[in-house]
Amino acid sequence: MWIYNLVHGTIEEKGAHGLPRGILRNLLSGPPEIVELYPGDMLVLATDGFFESNPKGDQFGVRKIHEIIRLEREKPPRELISALYQAVIEFSEGTQQQDDLTAVVVKRV
Asked: Regarding beta strands 2-5 and 10-13, do their DSSP bridges make them parallel or antiparallel, or are they unpaired?
């Protein structure tokens, strides 16, 4: 998960704090982390199918995702997701995708 800060133009990566809820019946999780978003800030979640796409042994990479987030920052979330998807498809050069491409973008207006 990445948090894009519009004012500073920065992207902060947030890792997982534990297992997803519902995996284990009696799993106790720690307290949630509160993330404050300001107008224009975004929360971007994408499965590894985006950054691990590798048609010729070369990965698309997180850096390219960050570049697209910055480039498309003014657009609505659906257009940002579309830009991420199109970039991975072009990078793949017609190679069949082996992993899912799932993304969620939350943008504070």
From this structure: antiparallel
pTM for the whole structure: 0.86
State pLDDT tens for residues 9-66. 999 999 877 777 777 888 877 788 899 999 999 999 999 988 887 777 788 999 999 9
The number of distinct structural domains making up the chain is 1
Query: Domain of 57?
Result: 2-9+38-107
How many CA atoms are closer than 13 Å to the CA of 40, on its beta-carbon side? 11
CA atoms within 13 A on the CB side of 17: 9
> How many CB atoms are closer than 10 A to CB 60?
21
Q: Is 26 inside a domain boundary?
A: no
At residue 103, φ and ψ (nearest 5 deg) are -140, 150
| Among 42, 60, 44, 43, CA closest to 98 | 60
Which residues are within 8 A (CB) of 59 and not within 5 positions of it... i.e. 6 or more apart?
A: 51, 52, 53
